[in-house]
Amino acid sequence: MDINDVFTLTKRKMIFSTNNETILALTKNKEACGISKKIGNGEVKILGFLFGYTSDEHLDVINKIVTMDGIRKDIKVNDEDLQITVRYGEKINLFPIKLS
Description:
mainly beta; three-stranded antiparallel sheet; two-stranded antiparallel sheet; 1 helix; 13% helix; globular
């Protein structure tokens, strides 16, 4: 994943030295600011930058990270202007919001 053009909330990014880690994201200067590291029997993905859902490209980044580990979506929406929030409790409730 290359995040050179992804808007982040701050310009500052944490830079990681890498040994056997997989690089997930790079700065414009080609420094590792996102890595995947094996710890024990598991694996952790560490992002050294801050972003939230403020643009559609952030959803693309989130989707790439999630699909790396084969995590399936509970819900898939075909309308890009529809945002769904799922609330879990005794019942599963869906709260749709039309963005346009």
